[in-house]
Amino acid sequence: MPTPPPAKHERTTMTLDERLEHKLAVARKYRGTITFFKTHRWLLSSEESGQGASTALRRAESRLTELSKTIRVLRTAIEKREARSRASASPRAAICDVFGRYCREAITVAWCESRLATTAQNGQYLGLFQMGSSERRLFGHGSTARAQAEAAHTYFVRSGRDWSPWSCKPGYAMS
Hints:
Number of helices: 7
Helix content: 55-70%
Number of strands: 2
Radius of gyration: 27 Å
Strand content: under 5%
Number of domains: 2
């Protein structure tokens, strides 16, 4: 027996991104309405259309104000979701995201230093890039691959982008 088609009243659940895109499209519509009436001011003072035009303009302005609040909330939620995703990224993904065009070199250094383990420790040296206590104090440190990559990247940039602070260099083979 075939399944019946979904009822017309059923709503599909939209993702945060889809909801934001929808709200942005609606906001563009209201901005267009506002722009139209601001460039056609004579409609607002016309005896025939003045009251309707004024009502439409006020409604568009009011709804745009409310939509703007909703859009801010949705953008904040998406930013938080993306931050959580970045924070929980694998060491390789975090390193590449942070180091950009130096991704391969940074992975080679981190592999040599820690075998890409965020919990690696050798005396005072900790994490993916085995940064010492004074370097961690200067550049930061964290438990996530992202936090450790950001700290190492800051150190890398401040040291002239030459990997000199690390005993492992990008030319070393990964084994």
